[in-house]
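Model the whole thing, not chain by chain.
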Amino acid sequence: MGIASGVLRLTGGFDDDAGLVRRCVGGDRDAFGKLVDRYSARIFGYVSRSVSNFDEAQDVAQEVFIRAFRSLSKFDGRASFATWLFKIAANLCIDKSRKRKGEPRIMPLLDEIAETDRQIDTRWDPESLAIAGEMERAVETCVARMSDKLRSVLLLHDQQFFGYEEIAEILGVPVGTVKSRLYLARARIQETIEEYTNGGNRNA
Amino acid sequence: MHDDLTTKLREEARLTPEEIALLDEELAKQNLSASAVANLPQRRPSPIWRGSLDRRLSDESSHRATLRHGPAFLAAAAAIALGAFFGLRNTSPEAIGAGQLIQWHEEAVASSVLPGDGANLGGFSSPPKRTAPQEEDPLYDGSLMSL
């Protein structure tokens, strides 16, 4: 236990978010690098499904971290660092959405996303694999076509696993509104799955 | 779920405690949708993205360092300049080198005799100097014809 904890301590394994933030404010830029390592995939996953295309997602995700770096001294620790970071991300996505109103939304195809980390069980037979891929695509399309309000709650709850109160804090809405939006968003997903399983999408 | 509750949800209207309890129950039944979203593939930024972000963060750090240390640097430079200025003014004549004094003197002299600059016309406006009367030459009668 002693050796393992010693190794972890030397490699920064016990650095929690608050500790890393304190080090960043003290001028340690490597500490911010660790926060980027810790959250870049989650932020990118959220942002890439909230903006219109992949390039824009890369820009917005970078901007999230740049803004966080600039205003790190304002982080008071009342909410978790993750909540605070996702609040920046959500606000940037809303800004982008307002700016592109009227423009057509470009929905990225799954194949275009080179960095996608697919987690499909390879023990499945090819037909099952293909069906799972089609279903996945249908759900992705449904998420992309949702309103910003529904999509943000759905992604924050069912993909990023935030609680109702945290989502309320991130989006600045009451908890009841979070629940309402989540119910409606999931209902859309449910309709999509039912349409697909009934053969609607597979024949399209 | 009742249609009227669905309508209230769409309108984001205030719900009664009973309606909230019903909503919680309905949310708990939506496992299939929740897992479908949770199982969407993770998307990760590329290493190029990370490199670009690191460069931007480095630029940001430099900018912040300039903002933090810039005023102190300017204050130090101003202090040195002021010190040099007042130090020169308070220097005693003995401390100034003879060569410098000679140079200043020559410059002053040169500037006072510059022709046509209007600075030396005072000398022309003064009355002519009176000279002592000369004794008359007995051989000269005052006429130029005799020369």
